[in-house]
Specification:
The structure holds 2 protein chains of 2 kinds. Helices cover about 30% and strands about 20% of the residues of chain A. By secondary structure, chain A is an alpha/beta fold. Chain A has one domain: Aldolase class I (TIM Barrel, Alpha-Beta Barrel), CATH 3.20.20. In chain A, the strands form 4 sheets. Chain A has an 8-stranded parallel barrel, surrounded by 6 helices. A 4-stranded antiparallel sheet of chain A has the order 5-6-14-11, with no helix packed on it. In chain A, strand 8, helix 3 and strand 9 form a beta-alpha-beta unit. In chain B, helix 5 packs parallel to helix 6. Chain B has a 7-stranded antiparallel sheet with strand order 4-3-7-1-2-6-5. In chain B, strands 11-10-9-8-12-13-16 form a 7-stranded mixed sheet, sandwiched between helices. Helices cover about 20% and strands about 35% of the residues of chain B. Chain B contains 6 helices and 16 strands. By secondary structure, chain B is an alpha/beta fold. Classes of the chains: A alpha/beta, B alpha/beta. At the A-B interface, strand 5, strand 6 and helix 7 of A face strand 14 of B. The complex binds flavin-adenine dinucleotide, flavin mononucleotide (FMN) and FE2/S2 (inorganic) cluster. The site of flavin-adenine dinucleotide has 22 residues of chain B, from strand 4, strand 6 and helix 2.
């Protein structure tokens, strides 16, 4: 079951996805944290961010929309308050980071590079909920430039998380690899919206938000397959994984590992179940 | 906090759009406090996807064994519709107890304390559990129940059974005070004695809570409100249920820091 991604050794290929697992403490007692392949923490930024106005989440058919707006307490709080707990769990901790500029990403990478408890860094260049003109992940040159600059600042395993809101995801994945990223993870959420027909108003205060959950699985799977057959570096697949069977589909599509997101909200112990199912499947192969 | 499969012991329609479900969940029943809630997975499939939050309405059981939790719910959409069709004897996933409940006065011994419980619609749910706890602590309480019409007045008997004085407000005046329950609160405050230190506990729709908070601020009464926000997880993982507070911190989480807040803390 063991795999490696960059320098990180994982005892199984199942990780908890960023933004859906808090800083792990929230799941204490609901899932055996030691069993996880890795934990990707909620995206942090240099300075604290208050996040978006309410409502921030709404359910849609077999999925949900969110526009949290990267609410977090900033990197220093993360290192002081959250990392000590996370490093004691005994599984690789991958820290998701985001910023408003390349400088901010580099600053975060440099700061985290010093921390022993951090196994890897995931670049969230694809959060659709922060106001900017287009995402870095929608432009192959911007992706290349960012990943390259961050690469120079850290020797930790570097993962670039891709957005599905692009015409050709393969070219973005290739740019990230060329810049020296150790792996790519995909997909982040699909930009979507919902309207309350009684009030005529959007159901999220942010108007649009990111769609996740089972509703996106077939598209996410197709994208993972496309990327995996076109790059040599490991692909971490996600999007709507609820069961071990879903995870196995992603592995069959070429992903080396998977991340579980929205499912954690519905069944906080789901990662353990998925790990068991994947283990069983690997044995029978 | 536990995620359990709980057996449905009872799922009865109590009036037009309201149901009461009794769940066998000893682990949850033992640790629950008034104002806390549970996340219930209503369906078995992928739609509805998310769990639905419900206040713990009562703790019950036979003898001293408090092994059941009850929820009181209103039929409003997909999830509650599925819930209403659940059969006795089947099991559902229940996660809880979640959040921070009402802060009860320490004891009634040293100086006279009393509580005013203000409910709007199905917001009455957690206040019955609270009334029972207050009764155990021998703290005097009055309940003000607000409803659209006399047919939708909930739980008046439950309050009376615990020795709580009940006042009713209906929007159409078909029973009790005509108008909002906030109007009734003003009326009650004008006529009650001022010998005891009163705490107001309120649960209901946001506009009602805002009015109640305003009245309490004016009268310098402590006021605790139970807030509802759209929730995805219910245990602090998604950051979906933010509540704007006056403090510079900006936001707190309804599911983890609440759902009960001191009304003075909220940026209404
Ligand atoms: C802490 C907390 C405690 C609650 N306690 C109770 C209770 O004891 N009894 C009870 O009947 N209801 C309670 N609610 C509200 C209850 O969760 C919603 O009515 C329920 O989720 C609706 O599900 P549905 O699938 O039937 O409706 P949906 O189809 O999801 O929605 C129908 C309507 O309900 C609204 N709604 C959906 N989710 C929520 C939500 N989380 N909060 C407020 N409104 C919502 C929607 O905006 C929509 O207008 C509570 C909510 C919270 C946050
Ligand atoms: C409420 C919520 C918050 C999220 N926050 C983040 C985040 O902070 N950073 C990030 O990279 N992805 C975030 N995501 C995206 C997930 O990590 C994941 O890419 C996406 O939800 C698809 O997987 P899923 O369908 O299994 O949830 C968030 C998703 C949800 C539902
Ligand atoms: S509902 Fe997820 S953090 Fe409150």
């Amino acid at each position: 079951m063991g795999i490696s991604i960059g320098k990180i050794k994982l005892k199984n290929p199942v990780m908890a996805a960023s933004g859906t697992f808090g800083y792990a403490k929230e799941f204490e007692g609901l899932v055996d944290l030691k069993k996880l392949g890795a934990i990707v923490t909620k995206t942090i930024t240099i300075k604290p961010r208050p996040g978006n106005p309410m409502p921030r989440v709404c359910e849609t058919a077999s999925g949900m929309l969110n526009a949290i707006g990267l609410q977090n307490e900033g990197v220093e709080d993360f290192i002081e308050e959250k990392l000590p707990y996370l490093s004691k769990i005994g599984v690789p901790i991958i820290v998701s980071i985001s910023g408003d500029s390349i400088k901010e990403f580099c600053g975060l990478a440099k700061r985290l590079d010093k921390e022993k408890g951090v196994a890897g860094i995931e670049l969230n260049i694809s959060c659709p909920n922060i106001k900017r003109q287009g995402l870095i992940a929608q432009d192959k040159n911007a992706t290349y430039e960012l990943a390259k600059k961050v690469r120079e600042k850290t020797s930790k395993t570097l993962i670039t998380k891709l957005s599905p809101n692009v015409t050709d995801i393969v070219e973005i994945a290739k740019a990230a690899c060329k810049a020296g990223t150790d792996a790519v993870s995909l997909v982040n959420t699909f930009l979507g919206m919902a309207i309350d027909i009684e009030t005529g108003k959007p159901r999220l205060a942010n108007i649009t938000g990111g769609l996740s959950g089972p509703a996106i699985k077939p598209i996410a799977l197709r994208m993972v397959w496309e990327v995996a057959r076109n790059i040599k570096k490991p692909v971490i697949g996600m999007g709507g994984i609820m069961t071990a069977d879903d995870a196995i589909e992603f592995l069959l599509a070429g992903a080396k590992a998977v991340q579980v997101g929205t499912a954690n909200f519905i069944e906080p112990g789901v990662c353990e179940k998925i790990i068991k199912g994947v283990e069983k499947w690997k044995k029978t192969r | 906090m536990k995620d359990v499969k709980a057996k449905i012991l009872e799922n009865e329609k109590i009036s037009a759009d309201y149901y009461k479900m009794t769940l066998d969940a000893p682990g949850l029943a033992r640790s629950a406090a008034p104002g806390q809630f549970v996340q219930v997975r209503c369906g078995d499939g992928l739609d509805p996807l998310l769990r639905r939050p419900f206040s713990i309405h009562r703790i019950s059981g036979t003898g001293d064994r408090l092994s059941c939790i009850e929820i009181l719910y209103e039929l409003v959409g997909k999830g509650t519709e599925i819930l209403s069709r659940k059969q006795k004897g089947t099991c559902i996933d229940v996660l809880g107890p979640l959040g921070n409940g009402f802060i009860l006065p320490l004891s009634a011994k040293r100086y006279p304390l009393s509580a005013i419980l203000v409910a709007g619609g199905v917001g009455v749910a957690p206040l019955v559990f609270l009334a029972e706890e207050l009764a155990r602590k021998k703290i005097k309480a009055v309940a003000l129940i607000g409803a659209r019409t006399k047919k939708s007045v909930l739980c008046d008997k439950d309050f009376k059974d615990t020795g709580v004085e009940v006042h009713i407000a209906t929007d159409d005046g078909s029973r009790g005070y005509k108008g909002f329950v906030s109007g009734l609160l003003q009326k009650v405050l004008r006529t009650t004695n001022h010998e005891s230190r009163k705490t107001v506990y309120a649960c209901g729709p946001q506009p009602m809570l805002k009015r109640i908070a305003g009245i309490c601020r004016e009268k310098r009464l402590e006021c605790q409100v139970s807030l509802e926000e759209e929730m995805a997880c219910g245990f602090g993982a998604c950051m979906g249920c933010a509540v704007k507070v006056k403090d510079q911190a900006g936001y707190k989480l309804a599911c983890k820091d609440g759902p009960v807040f001191n009304a003075a803390e909220i940026a209404w």
